[in-house]
Amino acid sequence: MPQPLNSKEQALFRLVVRSYEDKQYKKGVKTADQILKKFPKHGDTMAMKALILNAQGRTEEAFALGKEALTADMKSHVCWHVYGLLYRAAKNFEEASKAYKFALKLEPESAQIQRDLAVLQVQMRDYPGYIQSRRAMLQARPQIRQNWTALSIAYHLDGNLTEAEKVLSAYEGTLKQTPSRLDLEHSESVMYKNSLIAEQGEYQKALDHLEDAAKYNLDRLAVMEARAEYLQKLGRNEEAAKAYRALLDRNPDHQAYYEKLTQALGISDDDVKARKAIYDEYAAKFPRCDAARRLPLDFLSGDEFEEAAESYLTLMLNKGVPSTFANLKHLYSDDFKKEVLPELAENYLESQGADASSKDKGEAAALYFLAQHYNYRLSRDLDQADEYVNKAIEKDPKSVDYNMTKARILKHRGDIKKAAEAMDYARTLDLRDRYINSKAAKYHLRNNDNEKALKTVGLFTRADTVGGPLVDLLDMQCVWFLTEDGEAYARRGNTGLALKRLQAVANIFDVWQEDQFDFHTFSLRKGQIRAYVDMIRWEDHIRDHPFYSRAALAAINIYLDLAAKPAENGVNGEDTDEALAKKKAAKKAKKEQQRLEREAAEKQAKQDPNKASSSQTDEVKKKDDDPLGLKLAATEDPLGDAVKLLAPLLQVCPKSLEAQHAGFEVYLLRGKYILALRCLRAAIEIDPSSPKVHEQTIAFRHALNHATDLPAKVLEVLKEEFKAIEPSEDLKKVNDAFQAKHKSSPPHQLAALRAQHILGEDKARTNKEVLALLELPEIEFAHALEALELLQKWRSSEIETFRKAAIAKWPQVTRLE
Amino acid sequence: MADQQPTTADTEDERNTAAKSAEDRKAASALANLDSSSSSAAAAATPAPAVDHEAVTKAMKNLGGLGSGSGTRRNVKVDPADVALLVDQLDMTRPRATEFLKSHDGDAVTAMRAYITA
C-alpha cells in the first residue's frame, strides 16, 4: 500500500530525488535510509534508493531492492518507472518498455515517463509504438513545436511520408505570421518538409515549396542543391545546368556537381571532348582547383589521357604534392593508365626542367612517386621500389615520407622486423607528427611487439589518464589500435588479451548504438532534424563498417580454435609441450594480474587524499575485473560467444564472403546444419569459385553423412536444399579431382588439403603434399604462412621441415621464424 | 540475465491485480506529484510564443484518429513442437519462430527451406 508521508519525510524524499539528479549518491542513500527508518515499507523511497544503488554500479542489489519496492507498493508509478529504468540500464529494453507502459497506465499524465517510453521505442525501432507515444505527447502539449516535428519524424521513420508531411503542414497552418528568418528551428523544419515532399517523388511540388517557403532559408547550400536536383528531375535542363554552375562557383572541388552539370547539358558519356571542355573551363577559372584537373583522367583514354596526365603530373611534381600517388592510384585498375603513369614520371625525371636541388619538389617528388608506384599492389616490383626510394632518401635523408615508404617496402617483402625498425626511425624524424607516430605503433604491432607499440602511442595519449595509455585509448575508442593489438596478441598465442581487445572493439560498437539515446531528445531540442534522421538511418547498419567485421572475424577465428582444441587434445592425449607452455603462460598471466592489482592499489594510496575522496563519492568507475582477458579465454561456450559477434555480421553484411565462411564454420561445429547450409549457399552465391566453398561443401557432406539422430524434418530440408554433392559420392575422389583441376593455384591446393584433413585422409600423404606446395611456381610467402599455420594446428610432424624449406626460399620473411 | 527471468513472471501477476482498483491508483498519483514538480517547472519555463492555442487545438483535431495500420493477420495454427524445432535449428527467439512459422502456413519444412534461401 502506498503510504503518505508527513511533511518532514516528504521534504527528505525530495532531497533524495535531488541527490540522485545531482549524482550525490552517498548523500542520497543516507537520506533514503533516514526515511526508511521511519517507514520501512515506503515503496517510492526504496525505489529511489534502488536507482541510486544502480548508479553506483551495485546492479544486483538495485534489482533486488527495486523488486522489493514493487511488492511493497505495486500501485506506485514511481516504483514501476524505476523498475523500467533499472532494466533500461541493464539494456533489457523489452522489459523496460513493459515497466514504463505499466507506470504510464498508473499515471497517464506523467510527461517524464511518457518521454522515457518514447525514447526507448525509437531506440528499439518500434515505430508504431513511437507514433502512439508521440501522439500522446503532442496531445498533452500541442503548443510546443518540437512535439509536432517529433510526430512527423515518427511517421517518416515508419515509412508514412504523406502523414509526416501532413503533421508539419497542420502545425504551419496554426502560425499567424511567418516566423523570423533567423528562426533556426523553423528553417530546419521547412527543409525537412521539403525533403519529405521530394521523397514522395513530387518534384514539382517540392520545387514550388522550395522557391516559396525556403527562399530565404538559412541552409543556402541545401536549398541550392535541392533546387538543382529538382530541376534536373523535372527535365528543365537549362535551368538545372545554371543551378549546377552556381554550385560549382561555390565549390569547384565537388565531383558530383561536374557530373550533374554534364548530364544537364545533355552531353553523352562518349563525347569525351565536350566533357573535358567543362573541366577545362573550371580549371582556367579556378587556378588552385584540383578536381577540375584530376577528374578528367578518370574518363580520358589514349593520347588524350597521356596529354592530360602529363600536365597534371608535371604540375603536381613541380609543386611537390606528397599525396600525388594516392590521388592517382585508383586509375591503376586500367592497364593502359598503369603503364603510362610511371613512364610519364620517368620522362619527367629525365627532362632538364625538373628541380634537381629541392628536397621535396621536382626530381625528389618524381622519385617518391615511382617508389610508391613500384610498391603498390597492382604494379609491385620491390627491387625497383627500393632503388627509387633510396635515391629519394639521398635527396633528403630526413624526410618522414620517404623513410615511411621504405618501411612499407620492407613490410611487403615480409621483413616485418626491419619494417618496424624503419618506421620507428621515420618517427624519430618528426616527433611531433601524430600520423607517423601511429604508423610506427602499428608496425610494432605487426611485429608482435605490443609493449613497444603501447609505449609509442602513449607519447600522444593524455599523460594524466589513470591506468596509462591503454585506458585512454579505450576511452577515446581508438579502434584501429585495439584491433591491431588484439591481432598481435592472437599471433603470439595470448588468447586472453586478444579476445579482450577484440571484444573491446565490439563493445565500442555497442556504445555507438547506445549513444543514440542522447540524440532522440537533443536533436529535437536543437531542431537539427535532417541530420537526426540521417543518423538514425546510419545507426541501422552501423556494424557493416569494416572495422567491425575485421575485429569480429578475428575474434570468431579465435573462438573457433578454442572450440576445436579440447576435442583435439582428447584425441591425441599427449601434447605435453603445449600443455606445459600453456600452464606457464597462465602462471605468467596470473603474476601479471597480481602485479597490476598491486600497482593500482599503490597508486590509489599515493593519490592526494582530498582528490581521491571527491572522485570516489561521485563517479565510482567500474573496475575491470578481468584486465588480462583470462575469463574471456576460459569461456565454457566459445561457439556461443562467437555467435554473438557473428549474428550482427551476417545480418548487416550478408555479401561478405569471409562472414559467410566464418558463419559456416561456427554453425557446423554447433551442429546447426540448416544455418550452416544457409551460409554455404550464400557463399556460393557470392563467389562459386572461392576455394573455401569447395572445402566447406565437402565438409558439409561429410558431416551430414556422419550425423545421427537429426529430426526428420531437418533431414528433409537438407535433402532438398543441399544437392551440390550427392550422398553416394566418394568424397575423397571429389576432392582429388578438385586438386588435380587447380594444380597450380596455392589457395585451391590449401583448400583441398584442409578437406583431406577433414576426410581423415592418410596423414603422410597430406604432409607430403603440403611440403610440395613450396614447389608451386605461383606460391607466395603468405600462402606458406597459411600452410605453416595449418601444420601447427594439425600438430604435424613436418612443421620443422616445412619451416626450414620455407625460410630457405624466403629468408627475409620474419613471421616464418 | 538468469536472475531476471523469474522476476518477469512475478510482474505479470502483479500487473493483473494492480490494474483493478482505481482507488489505489489515486493514492499513487498523490505520491507522483512529489517528483513531477521539477519536470513541470521545466516545461513551464519553455516559452511558447506566437502560438495560437485555439488554432493548435483545432489542428490537433484535424489530424484524425490513430492510424490503425495493423494488417489483418491470418489465424494459422502452429505446432509447438515445430516452434521448438525452429528455435533450436535456426537460433531464433520463440516469438520470432512462431511468427515465421505462421507466415509459412505453419509448415516447418517450407519455413526452414525458405530461411535457407532468404
Task: Describe this structure as you would to a colleague.
The complex is a heterodimer of chains A (817) and B (118). Helices cover 74% and strands 0% of the residues of chain A. Chain A is mainly alpha-helical. In chain A, helix 3 packs parallel to helix 5 (77-89), helix 10 runs antiparallel to helix 11 and helix 14 (237-250) packs antiparallel against helix 15. The model of chain A is unreliable at 569-576 and 608-620 (pLDDT under 50). By secondary structure, chain B is an all-alpha fold. Chain B has six helices and no strands. Chain B has helices spanning 4-18, 22-45, 53-62, 80-90, 94-102, 108-117. Chain B is rod-shaped and about 60 Å long. Chain B starts with a helix and ends with a helix. Mean pLDDT of chain B is 62; it is low at 1-20, 26-49 and 65-72. At the A-B interface, helix 1, helix 4, helix 5, helix 6 and helix 8 of A face helix 1, helix 2, helix 3, helix 4 and helix 6 of B. Chain B: InterPro entries: Huntingtin-int_K, HYPK_UBA, NAC-like_UBA.
The CATH class assignment of the domain at 7-184 in chain A is Mainly Alpha
**Inertia-based shape of chain B:** rod-shaped
Radius of gyration of chain B: 24 Å
- CA-to-CA gap between the ends of chain A? 74 Å
Number of strands of chain B: 0
Strand runs of chain A, count: 0
What structural category characterises the helix and strand content of chain B? Answer: mainly alpha
CATH-level-2 architecture of the domain at 7-184 in chain A: Alpha Horseshoe
Percent range for β-strand residues of chain B: under 5%
Helix content of chain B: 55-70%
Q: Could you say what the CATH topology of the domain at 7-184 in chain A is called?
A: Serine Threonine Protein Phosphatase 5, Tetratricopeptide repeat
Query: At the fourth CATH level, what is the homologous superfamily of the domain at 7-184 in chain A?
Result: Tetratricopeptide repeat domain
GO cellular component, one term (chain A): NatA complex
Keywords (chain A): Repeat, TPR repeat
InterPro entries (chain A): NatA_aux_su, TPR-like_helical_dom_sf, TPR_rpt
Region (Disordered) (chain A): 570-625
